[in-house]
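Tokens for chain A. Residues wanted.
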């Protein structure tokens, strides 16, 4: 009898009667294997047990953790070391104010809602570190796997039971239609830079993994953040004579990587399977057979299912990229007016590709936005780079979705893995950054509270859910966890609270680990 993995939570497992267990155990005798059963379950589950309001999800990940004070929860009455340098602007919701550098989003506040009291209830040592918070947010969890630390969670570890990412569970419980050639979950625009914990399929199996796609040009910047070409480094000097560029005293020459245009993705490799520009299905099948012969013939259920899924995905991608098919990654097919609406920079182009992917039938697109880890030069970089970019690009995205009739069926979620400290301070008093200047003030890691932006997909717009204390450091009243955010996403996709998935050994787990945020519904 197989041993149960460590860190199982009884609530994750539905009760199974002896008769049902015997019936499942006898399936193999009737000619239907476990892999077939799970595949049939996934196909039957497309609509979930509820009525879906959303057909797809665009998750905008603000990597690094944006400040609640300098975005959607300013504290203008707090002392200066809490309040910060910026003023506020009234939002299109009575009595609500945003940071003054988000005027376009403030004018559109009736199109989206905010949860101001998201927080990590994990142990103190876990809730303020990037890697741990990455895992907690992207899996919708409230604790790390048993035995993991902030240091160990970033690397493979034998015996770890990893909870699936939200995207992998969506791929399992709400798969794409059979005629859709693209994977259910796609991550853009710099897949090679996002090797963070929590993005893996974990217990649900590798056949439900995301597809990370590189679209953006190579970045040569030192610790770059922001939206190219409106990008920067936190270490950039404040001395104008040393500004990045071709100047004689420049800290470094950044002129070679200010190219925001995306390139088409390399479809030569999908889940380890080489797919050149094949002329026929026969060539594809020959290549698949060559790979099979080199693989280990003694498959266990998980590799067998993964192989089956990869083969099917390869065939579907081949059909999706045949001549005459519109490539959702090809932005030259969009008008200049639309591209200007989104913004001719990395973030805007990412949102535009996301819109095209959901139109092509993809269930979840994750758009990663770099540079929100504002420990130093925070007010310079937020005002000059981060806030103007997100204000323009996200506003254009919302406007375009609404104009095309897509907003009601597309759930847009935006947040980081944590917030920032209420008090402003340098990361190291008197210390120097990489360019040799004294550290300037910023805000530091803070998982006790952080905001989340949601639009479309069946949510009630124009609402502010939850509140924080006078310093913006702790939830005041009802607070919500990443598990509740994940449950909200599943609920809006029609994935009911009793839905299950199975690991490679056939053990069932409940998808839901939190409660949908009712104020949004």
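Reply:
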């Amino acid at each position: 009898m197989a041993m149960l993995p460590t860190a199982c939570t009884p609530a994750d497992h539905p009760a199974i009667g002896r008769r049902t267990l015997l019936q499942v155990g006898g399936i193999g005798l009737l000619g239907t294997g476990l892999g077939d059963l799970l595949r049939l379950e996934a196909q039957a589950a497309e609509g979930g047990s509820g009525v879906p309001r959303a057909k797809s999800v665009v998750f905008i990940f603000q990597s690094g953790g944006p400040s609640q004070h300098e975005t959607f929860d300013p504290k203008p009455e707090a002392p200066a070391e809490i309040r910060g340098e910026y003023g506020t602007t009234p939002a299109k919701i009575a009595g609500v104010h945003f940071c003054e550098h988000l005027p376009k989003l403030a004018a559109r506040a009736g199109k989206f809602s905010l949860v101001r009291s998201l927080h990590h209830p994990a142990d103190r040592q876990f809730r303020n570190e990037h890697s741990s918070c990455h895992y907690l947010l992207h899996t919708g969890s409230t604790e790390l796997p048993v035995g993991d630390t902030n240091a160990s969670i970033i690397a493979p570890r034998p015996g770890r039971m990893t909870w699936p990412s939200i995207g992998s569970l969506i791929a399992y419980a709400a798969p794409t239609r059979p005629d859709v050639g693209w994977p259910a979950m796609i991550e853009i625009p710099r897949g090679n830079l996002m090797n963070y914990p929590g993005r893996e399929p974990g217990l649900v199996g590798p056949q439900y993994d995301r597809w990370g796609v590189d679209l953006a040009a190579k970045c040569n910047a030192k610790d770059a953040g922001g939206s190219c070409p409106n990008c920067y480094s936190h270490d950039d000097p404040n001395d104008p004579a040393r500004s990045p560029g071709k100047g004689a005293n420049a800290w470094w020459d950044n002129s070679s990587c200010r190219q925001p245009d995306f390139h088409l993705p390399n479809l030569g490799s999908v889940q380890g399977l080489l797919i050149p520009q094949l002329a026929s299905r026969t060539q594809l099948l020959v290549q698949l057979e060559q790979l099979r012969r080199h693989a280990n013939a003694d498959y266990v259920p998980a590799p067998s299912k993964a192989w089956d899924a990869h083969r099917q995905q390869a065939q579907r991608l081949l059909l999706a990229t045949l001549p005459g098919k519109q490539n959702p990654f090809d932005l030259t097919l969009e008008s200049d007016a639309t591209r200007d609406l989104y913004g001719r920079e990395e973030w805007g182009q990412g949102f535009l590709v996301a819109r095209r992917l959901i139109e092509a039938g993809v269930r979840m697109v994750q758009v990663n936005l770099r540079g929100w880890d504002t420990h130093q030069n925070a007010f310079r970089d937020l005002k000059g780079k981060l806030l103007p970019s997100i204000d323009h690009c996200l506003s254009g995205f919302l406007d375009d979705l609404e104009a095309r009739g897509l907003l009601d069926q597309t759930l847009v979620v935006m947040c980081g893995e944590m917030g920032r400290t209420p008090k402003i301070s340098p990361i190291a008093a008197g210390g120097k950054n990489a360019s040799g200047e004294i550290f300037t003030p910023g805000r530091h890691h803070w998982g006790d509270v952080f905001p989340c932006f949601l639009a479309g997909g069946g949510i009630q717009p124009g609402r502010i859910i939850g509140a924080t204390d006078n310093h913006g450091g702790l939830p005041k009243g009802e607070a919500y966890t990443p598990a509740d955010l994940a449950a909200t996403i599943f609920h809006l996709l029609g994935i009911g609270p009793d839905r299950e998935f199975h690991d490679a050994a056939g053990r069932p787990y409940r998808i839901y680990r939190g409660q949908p945020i009712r104020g949004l519904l």
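The mean pLDDT is 84. Residues 378-403 form the longest helix (26 residues).
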